[in-house]
Design brief:
By secondary structure, this protein is an alpha/beta fold. Helices cover about 30% and strands about 25% of the residues. The chain has two domains: about 10-325, ANL, N-terminal domain (Rossmann fold, 3-Layer(aba) Sandwich); about 440-545, ANL, C-terminal domain (GMP Synthetase, Chain A, domain 3, 2-Layer Sandwich). The protein is built from 16 helices and 26 strands. The strands form five sheets. Strands 1, 2, 10, 11, 12, 13, 14, 15, 16, 17, 18, 19, 20 and 21 form a 14-stranded mixed β-sheet that branches. β10 (about 230-235), α9 and β11 form a beta-alpha-beta unit. α2 (about 30-50) crosses α3 (about 65-75), α4 (about 90-100) crosses α5 (about 110-120) and α8 crosses α9.
């Protein structure tokens, strides 16, 4: 398979379907020609500001047309996108800005305060600020502000601050940048770390385009209508799952994507009805929210044909209810930040709720004994290892984390998924259990170690253990067990949650905090998280009875 740049296929579609709508955002339509022009203008402006090939640019935005323009504009000049969650706190963006070595950050005006708070503690040189409605017509912006429907932040202007809407007004210029899809980075994405700090995952252009092309050929091929189909992007684009599907189903096929700034159920249902959406991606919690919406019968969702779910295990009950109500199944996608998209259930067969599908051709999977790394017999349960000729097999500036998560087998470097699976007689991989270190909450992967590290920074805490408690609605709720110093006084769960709230994104905050005298540890002092997790599961099962 020939490696390509992340934007090559999009540019082909822009030439082929210039007048086709590429993006619908807050009701405004952006054709392929217009989107390509805006990307060119923004890329040229970044170049004029001094952003060069290889420079890191933090994307601190929610889903928006500005996100798309920024991501591809960064790629066009050979720079490296560092997409992060728009709900991250100053504590988190300071760490990621410093760790990635970023000199530029693009943010919403509502997050500008966080950026200014950490600006001088990092290597950042410039801030590009935008508002969600910046690219909407004047009358729409005016109505939004008049009725106080548009969140707006206060901007303190100085020589380091630039406005997105000004940069896209500048004349595009021809950029003569040579980009090697194998050697040059496309992005650095951050994922939870076992040492308490998020890990940067560097991705080259070849790595991303390899699985995107697999999805186009092996999954969507024969079902998608090139240049005449519609996809809805609800999941955050800073996540590998959402970014990959948006590229594969939307831009790379010349189709229309409805970009949703936030997952509000009624807005999603209205958009599906209005724009006749056929392709849909969600996490289990989103599917459940839709099924439980009191106004669901008021919307015509008959256009939906192909629904995919990822980010967490799809409950059988949710799968069954969806099929009964809409007469179409929910298919599954499985992957990770480190190796991209790995498996898909195929559209030519009825999906099994516990199957995560067949591996894509550019991804090689092994199921092994987690202790010996020897392959398990066919049909037996083992840990999933994945490799690809196209991916970078290391973390950014984290050699110890790399050694912990990657292994060499027969001359090939595999990533340890930490998930336990088995492969059936049809070659489909069936999910069994996840690693105890990763909590799946509302489709997000939350590192137990990261939350523990933040708790243990509190001056009154000497020990902390964080686990996931099974919950039908959100997958798992986050529970923390803490041990306080002997002289600690007046510390309660609300204070500790406030401490976490100031340092972690909202989805990482423990919903429950339990105080204990001690935590179980092995003879060498290692925290026995699995023991506590099993204890919580037994308690949950008992409560249900």
């Amino acid at each position: 398979m020939e490696a390509e740049l992340t934007f090559t296929q999009f540019e082909r579609m822009s030439e082929k379907y210039p007048d086709r709508v590429a993006i619908i955002f807050l009701g405004e339509k952006f054709t392929y020609a217009r989107l390509q022009n805006l990307i060119g203008r923004f890329a040229a402006s970044l170049n004029r500001l001094g952003v060069k090939k290889g420079d890191k640019v933090v994307l601190y935005l929610s889903n928006s047309v500005q996100w798309v323009i920024s991501f591809f504009g960064i790629q066009k000049i050979g720079a490296v996108a560092v997409p992060i969650a728009p709900i991250y706190t100053s504590f988190e963006i300071e760490y990621m800005s410093n760790d990635s070595g970023a000199e530029t950050i693009i943010c919403l005006d509502t997050n500008f305060g966080y950026v200014k708070e950490i600006f001088r503690k990092t290597g950042l040189k410039r801030v590009i600020v935008t508002n969600l409605v910046d690219l909407l017509p004047f009358w729409k912006r005016a109505v939004g502000y008049l009725f106080d429907k548009v969140p707006k932040g206060t901007i303190k202007k100085d020589e380091s601050v630039h406005f997105f809407k000004d940069l896209i007004k500048q004349t595009p210029e021809k950029l003569d940048v040579e980009i090697d899809p194998w050697k040059d980075l496309s992005y650095i994405l951050y994922t939870g770390g076992t040492t308490g700090f998020p890990k940067g995952v560097p991705g080259n252009h070849a790595g991303m385009t390899s699985y995107v092309r697999d999805v186009m050929e092996e999954v969507a091929g024969g079902y998608i209508e090139e240049g005449n189909d519609t996809y809805i992007a609800i999941n955050p684009l800073f996540h590998i799952m959402a970014l990959g599907l948006f590229t594969a189903i939307g831009l790379n096929y010349g189709n229309t994507t409805v970009v949703m700034p936030m997952p509000q159920t009624d807005a999603i249902l209205s958009a599906i009805q209005k724009f006749k959406v056929r392709w849909f991606l969600g996490v289990p919690a989103l599917y459940r929210m839709i099924l439980e919406n009191d106004r669901l019968n008021q919307y015509d969702l008959s256009s939906l044909k192909y629904c995919y779910c990822g980010g967490d295990v799809l409950p059988v009950e949710v799968s069954r209810r969806w099929k009964e109500l809409f007469h179409i199944p929910i298919h599954q996608v499985y992957g990770s930040t480190e190796v991209g998209h790995i498996t898909y259930t195929r559209l030519n067969r009825e999906p099994d709720a516990m199957s995560i599908g067949l591996p894509l051709k550019s991804r090689k999977c092994k199921i092994v004994d987690p202790d010996t790394l020897e392959p398990v017999p066919a049909g037996e349960i083992g840990e999933l290892l994945v490799t690809s000729d196209y991916t970078i097999k290391k973390y950014w500036n984290k050699p110890e984390e790399t050694n912990r998560s990657y292994v060499t087998l027969n001359g090939e470097i595999y990533y340890r998924m930490g998930d336990y699976v088995r492969q059936d007689e049809n070659g489909e991989i069936r999910y069994v259990e996840r690693s105890a270190d990763i909590i799946k909450h509302k489709g997000y992967r939350v590192s137990a170690s990261e939350v523990e590290a933040v708790l243990q920074d509190h001056p009154t805490i000497v020990g902390a253990c964080v686990v996931g408690v099974p919950d039908a609605k959100v997958g798992e709720r986050i529970k923390a067990m803490v041990v306080l110093k002997e002289d600690a006084r007046g510390v309660d769960s609300s204070e500790l949650q406030k401490w976490c709230r100031e340092r972690l994104a909202p989805y990482k905050i423990p919903q429950y905090i339990e105080f204990r005298d001690m935590l179980p540890k092995s003879k060498v002092g290692k925290l026995l998280r699995r023991e506590i997790r099993d204890e919580e599961r037994r308690r949950t099962s008992k409560d249900k009875k």
